[in-house]
Design brief:
Structural class of chain A: alpha+beta
Radius of gyration of chain A: 16 Å
Oligomer: homodimer
Helix content of chain A: 55-70%
Number of helices of chain A: 10
Order of helices and strands of chain A: EHHEHHHHHHHEEH
Number of strands of chain A: 4
Distance between the termini of chain A: 10 Å
Largest sheet of chain A: 4 strands, mixed
Chain lengths: 191, 191
């Protein structure tokens, strides 16, 4: 069955905004959403891509742009004190989370970072959000390998940033392409 | 009086798409559009920004994305054989063009490059489109300085790419932010 695949890393602000409505897009099209945590830093390294905010003028503009999006979408947004952070442990925790719980926990982590200024690279902060058992599960060799595999697969499919969506063979990048994602999802659901 | 300022370089495909509807946005809001040709290469150099297609995976995706936009907007689009090109002489020609003729000539140049595969870095191609007198006018020291000034001004105001829009003090980047541009233009027209 067709699905809407959502590759994401909590470290990206546009990904947070996209995550708040990806289930709505899936529901509107009648496609299940598959949440695939991956590691953005490794995607950048593999593709030679870089965070836009490294260019100072882009970074300044991004703050304004994020404010416009959060106002338009009516989502709470507060740029965190610590940015960027190392999202490795957070992404491993999401990888170790059962499928059925992953969307809600992913959103909880992103809201903690992007609305409540909680530093997800701090293991104590993270443990309070996901529980100590999940931290332990995150650090098994099997789980580490699973996150690596999803990340490598995303790069092989053409991903270079977060959020990245797939509907069948069609790839889409960015919170600002979710209209295209919806179109493709509706076409896929109709076939 | 408030205006919608449009900084653009013909070398950018998303700029072409934006240019086909910027006048419609201005008309919808009731604001005049001021067309400001600038030199994207100089903006990149000044800001440290780089063309997205330099990252191979981004470049491949950009082609798909441009196809989606041109289909959505119902604008003819054909990726040119020569890309990127040196747009310096073309931008100088547009600088040397009287205000009243600039929008139409700018669109003509962008359609020639982005729909009809005409290499605007070729002086003969360009002369056939703008006329030999305009080529001569483009190359005066005063006109060269005028293009440099507009480019430097854009960078000072925060621009890092093309297309860039200003409505009062608010800056917007990209064809995919024209909904925000329209909102801001309508607010500016109402005050």
């Amino acid at each position: 069955m067709a699905a809407l695949e959502f590759y994401y890393d909590v470290v990206s602000p546009y990904t947070y905004l996209a995550a708040t409505r990806v289930e709505q897009i899936g529901a509107q099209a009648g496609l299940p959403v598959v949440w695939r945590p991956f590691l953005l830093g490794a995607v950048f390294k593999a593709t030679g891509n870089a965070p836009p905010a490294l260019v100072r003028a882009r970074g300044a503009y991004m703050l304004r742009d994020l404010g416009r999006w959060s106002a338009k979408m009516d989502e709470p947004f507060r740029f965190p004190s610590a940015f960027p952070i190392n999202s490795l442990l957070a992404q491993r925790c999401l990888t170790a989370t059962p499928d059925a719980e992953r969307p809600a926990l992913s959103l909880a982590l992103m809201r903690a970072y992007w609305a409540d200024n909680q530093d997800l690279s701090d293991v104590d902060v993270l443990a309070a959000l996901v529980g100590p058992d999940r931290i332990a599960a995150a650090q098994t060799p099997e789980n580490k390998a699973a996150l690596r595999l999803v990340t490598e697969e995303a790069v092989q499919r053409g991903a270079f940033g977060s959020p990245t969506f797939f509907v069948g063979g069609e790839m889409f990048f960015g919170n600002d392409r979710m209209d295209f994602v919806l179109d493709a999802a509706q076409r896929a659901a109709a076939t």
